[in-house]
Write a structure and sequence with these properties.
heterodimer, A: 462 residues, seven-stranded mixed β-sheet, 25 strands, globular, B: eight-stranded mixed β-sheet
Amino acid sequence: MQDLFEKLIDKGLKLGAEFIDIRSEETIGTNIKIIDSKLKVGSNFNNIGVGIRAFIDGAWGFVSSTILEKGHLQDKLKHAVKMAKLITKNSKIKFKLKERDPVKEKFQSDVKIRISDVDITEKVKFLEEIDKQAKSFDNRIVNTNSIYSDAESTVLICNSFGSIIEKRSSHILCVSMNFSKEGNIRQRGFRSIGESRGYETILSEGAANIGEESAREAIELLSAVSVKGGTYTVLLDPKLSSTFIHEAFGHATEADALVAGESILENKLNKQIGPEFLNVIDDPTIPNLYGSYEVDDEGAIARRTILIENGVLKSYLNNLETASRLNMEGNNARTASFHYYPIVRMSNTHISPGDWKFEEMIENIKDGIYAQGWIRGYTDPAIGTFMFKCAKGNIIKNGEIKELLRDVAISGETLYTLKQIDAVGNDLEFTPGHCGKFGQIVPVADGGPTIRVKNLVVGGLK
Amino acid sequence: MLNDNLKENCELIENKLSKYHLDQFEIYGLTTSQVSVQLKKGSIKDFTEYYDSGVGIRVIKDKRIGFAFSSSFDMSKVEKLINRVIKFTRVGVPDLDFQKLPSPKKYPELTNLIDPKIVNLTPEAVINYLERMVSAANVNNKIYSISGEFTSDIYHEVILNSNGVNRETEHSEIDIFCNVTTKDMGNTGSSFDFQSVRFLKEIEPERIGENAANLALRSLNSKKLKTSSMPVIFHPIASSTILGSGIGTAISAEQIQYQQSYLIDKLNEKLFTMDIFIEDNGIYIKENNIPGVGSSNFDAEGFPTQKTIIFESGVLKNYIHNSYTANKEKVANTGNASRFGYKSTPTISITNLVFHPGNDGELNDLIDETKEGIVLYYTGDTPNIITGDLSAMIHTGFYIKDGEPIYGIKNTMIGINMIDFFKNIDMVGSKIESLARIHIPPFRVSNVRISGN
C-alpha cells in the first residue's frame, strides 16, 4: 500500500498539486449493548478505506472511498487535484503551506491485553455483570442499558513532505445508563469509563462498579426537585467544569474557527481573559487517556499546548492549514475516519488544579447551586455563548449542600464567565467522551477540578 | 443509478448466509455518494467527495441476534466477519421478545424519490449556488463573516431478508446551510438558516443567505432579560428542534417500551388544549409535488411506509413502531424502522412529522398579536424525553413589546415542561414550513418561564 501511495503522491504533484496527503485506515471492532438484561446488539465490524487530499494555493480537493483498487485510487487522485484547481480558481482565500520535516515512524498505543485477543464471550460476561449490578440495585430501576465498544485501528499516512507514518491505536469504552421510576417521576443515572489502551481498562478497578454507581444516581434523582431559574453563584463539579472548558472555551481556541472569523478569541492572544490563577492545557501526550495520541492525523508529532497561562491566552490549536496561515505550530489535526479530512481538534483539554479544598469553596456561598455532571450541551464560538444540561445539582444554602435538583441547566457568555471564576479546586478529574464537529466525532477526554463561578444563569421551570 | 454492484454483492452475501443454519437473516446494503463544497469567510474554500459502500448483516438463531457491518465487499473479509458475529448467537440471554423480520407486503408506489438532475450536477453549478447565497447575505459592512456548505447526496439502498423481502431504491437529498457573523462597535451577532430538500429546483440560496444575514444583524446589541414568565412564539426552526425531539422521539415505541418517555400511558389523552392534528407520514408529498425528505416506499427493514395519526384534535392516538416493538406489543408495524447507515441495527424514527396548519396567519401576525413576549428563532436545545422538561438557551430570539420585536436576547433561558407546552399553545400559524423531516407552522405558547437577571 505504501508503494502505491508514494506513486500516487508523485503523480499528484506532477498534475499540479502543491501538496498531497493520503490516509488509509483499517479498523476492526466490537459493539455490545445489553438492555434490560437481554443482548440487544452484539456486533463486529471492519471499516476500510482511503482519503486523498490535494492542495493548491489555499484550496483543498478531498476525495474518500471504500474501494482500494489501484485504478480507482488513481482516478480519485486526479479528481482531488482537479477539484483543488477548480476551487482555487474561484476562491479569494490564498496561502501557501508551511513546509514540514518528514516524519518516518511507527506508533503503537500502549496496550497490555489486545482487545482482538479477548473472546466476545468474556466481553459479554463483563457487560452482563454491569447490567446485573444496575438491575439488582433497587426495584425502582425500570430500564438498564449497558454498552461496550472497542476498536483497533491501523492508519497509514503518507504525504508529499516525505512523511510515512503507521499508527496502531486501540480505544475502549464502557457505559452504564439506567432509568428509575417512582410514580410519575422518571430519572436517569450515567457512568462511563474509556481509555486509549487495551482490555486492561475493563479489568481495572474503575470499571468494576459502574453499573451500581449509575443506578445509585438514577435512584437518588427520584427525590430531586426542579430548580428555580435565575442568576446564582455556581460550583461546577469536575465533570461539568471539564465540559465547560472543552465546549465553551476550547472550541474557540480551534484556529479554523479563528481564520473563518468565527471565534471570540480573535485578537485576544497574550491578553488577560481569566483570573491569574487559571491555567488551561490541551495535552494529547498524557498516557492512555481517551483523547491521547502520539502523532496527529497529518503526521505531526503530538505535543502539549498551554492555552491559558495565569489567565493569559497563550496559544490556539492548529492543523497544517491554520498553522501555515497564522505562522504557528500545528499538531492538533484529527479525523473521525478516512472519510473526512483532518480538522483542528482538542485531545485531553483540562483546567489545571488549584489549591482550594471543596469545603473552603462552599463555605461563603449563601445562596448558590452545586451543579454536577452533564447530559448534553452546545456552544457558539462566534458569539461565545454556551448551554449545558447538568446531570444533577444541589441547592447551596449558607455554605451547606441542601436539596437535590433535577434538570439543572447553565448558560452564559464564555468571556464573561471565565472572568467570574473566583476559585479553582484541587480535585482534577478526567472524563472520557466523544466530541462532534462538522459531522466528525472523535474520542476526547476533558479534565477539570471543581470551580466556583459567580453570576451564572441557571435555567429552571419554576 | 450508481454503478456500485450493490445488489449483486448483497446477493453474494445472501448465498453465503443461506449455508449457515440460521433461523433468520437480513442484509442491508447502502452506497452513499456525496459531493460537498464549503464556504469560509465569504469565499469558496474546499471541495470534498465521499463515496461509501457497505453492508450491515443481522443473523438470528434461537432468539439471539448478531450484527456485523463491513465497508469492504472482499468476500474473504465478509466471511470472517460472519464467522465472528455468529458467536453472538451462542452467548448472552436470548431476547424472547424478538419474533420475526418483516415479510414482503404491498408497497406504496411513490416516484420522484431521486432528482435525475443531481447525477449530472457539476462542481461549477454548486459553486454558483454558494456564490448566490453569499451575494444575498452580504448586505452591508456589519457582515463580518459568511460561512456555509452545499451538500448533495445520492443513496442506493438494498434490503434482503430470509423471509423473502427484496427491495431496492435510490433517493437524493440536498442541503444548503448559511451561517453569518456580524460585528458592530464591539458587539457580535450570529445566526443561520438552512434547507434540506430532495430536488435541486427546491434550493433557494438567496432566501437562505438573506434570512441568515437579517437575523445576525438583528442579533447585534442583544440584551439579557429579567427572570419572569411570558408568551413565547416559536418560529418553525425553533419548534422543529423542540417538537422534532419532544414529539418525534417521545412517540417512538422503543422509548415507550424502555420507559424512557414522558408520553408513556398518555394514549387517548387530550394533551393539547387546542384541536391540534399531527401525523407521521412516510408517503408525504409536499405542495410542490415532491416527496418530503423523509418519504419512501419502505422503511429500513423493508416494511411498507404509511401515514400514522399521532395527534387527532389534540388527543394522542398512536406511537410509532418497527417490526421488533410492534411484534413485542402485538400491534401493527407502522413502518418506522430507521438506521444510521449500514453501520447500525434498525431503530425507530419519524418519517415526516406533519402538523396541520392553524388559522392565525403568518409569524408576523402572531407577533402583532403579542403585547409582551419573545419570538424564538433558534435554540439548540431539546426537551429531556424522560421528564418532558425543557430548559433552552435563546440562541436567536427577540423581545416583543406591543407587537414589535424591539431587540435581540442573550444570556437568557426559557423553561417549560412539554405537557404544559402542549396545554399552553394558544395560537397556531396558517403556513407550514418544511424543515427536513418536520413540516410545521409557527406556534405561540403562553406562560413560559424566562430565566435571566
